[in-house]
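[SOLVED] Predicted holo structure with 2-acetamido-2-deoxy-beta-D-glucopyranose

Edit: marking solved, answer below. Original request kept for reference. I posted the sequence and ligand SMILES and asked for the 3D complex as structure tokens.
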Amino acid sequence: MLLQERMSAYPLKSSKGPVFPLRSVLVFLIALFGFYVCYFSFNQLTFENEEKLTNEEEQTKSICRKPAVPHEEKRYLHFPKPITYDRGECACTPVRFFVIVSMQRSGSGWFETLLNSHPNVSSNGEIFSVRDRRENISTILRTLDKLYSMDWHTSAAKNECTAAFGLKWMLNQGLMEHHQDIVDYLNRKGAMVILLFRRNTLRRLISVLANNYDRRTKQLNGIHKSHVHSKEEALSRVQEFLGVPVMKLSSKHVKIHTRPLPDLVDNWEDVSDMLNGTKYARFLDDADYVK
Ligand SMILES: *[C@@H]1O[C@H](CO)[C@@H](O)[C@H](O)[C@H]1NC(C)=O
Ligand SMILES: *[C@@H]1O[C@H](CO)[C@@H](O)[C@H](O)[C@H]1NC(C)=O
Ligand SMILES: *[C@@H]1O[C@H](CO)[C@@H](O)[C@H](O)[C@H]1NC(C)=O
């Protein structure tokens, strides 16, 4: 109505001017505008559809509010969507990805069982002990992708909501050969690294020998044993690091070869003489941890 009034009012005002060209220009513009509106809304429709399909993860992210953590920690929080099962009521429980980097005979087995005694932590063992998975960098990254999508089923699975999910990785399981690519991947992925090493390298080396001896003589019937010390504060710090409620962790692993080093090593005098006065002398005093 308004438009029509204007249209009819128009020629009155400009009756002396070139009426016809102006009117047709106006009609043309209105038609153009109509086309534009149609085109635009059509585009919008398809665009919205596409967005629905591709941005599912974005949507989850906006639906699942990230908890109040410092900005720089946000990139370590993930909401994985496994293909093989539904996280159900845990879908909005953020998960931190971690990797325990260690060496053999460093107490990492004990450490991992401790972590797995936490209801919100799931560590999936030495997944790269399988040679095929560390064949080359692409098999390594594919394995990691599969693990961190949480489509990985081991005894580490929990009934509670998993809030920290990871693996144990020995330095000699492809980690050293491909360290640059792996570091890039972990950074990109927002995964956290726990470096576990035995402070007393000498004790670790002796433990390697002792372990071989034990294996040959079959002393280890039944339960698995690790050569370790307990360190409660360290464990609380790891739990804080992983963003899980701090609780008392337990392990069935027991430490063997607890005797002082001189009792364990036949030629201790030779070892001692060799190391005395060098920067390795500190290993002689038998301490695994800083006191
Ligand atoms: C990595 O190893 C897999 C399995 O052996 C093989 O199929 C693939 O071609 C290798 N990729 C590269 C880049 O070497
Ligand atoms: C640990 O699991 C419980 C039970 O599923 C859950 O309510 C809680 O939010 C989880 N903790 C964290 C830090 O996600
Ligand atoms: C190291 O050497 C010094 C001097 O030669 C000696 O007094 C000390 O007892 C030695 N320490 C050990 C642990 O053998």
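OP edit: The first helix runs from residue 2 to 13. Thanks to everyone who chimed in.
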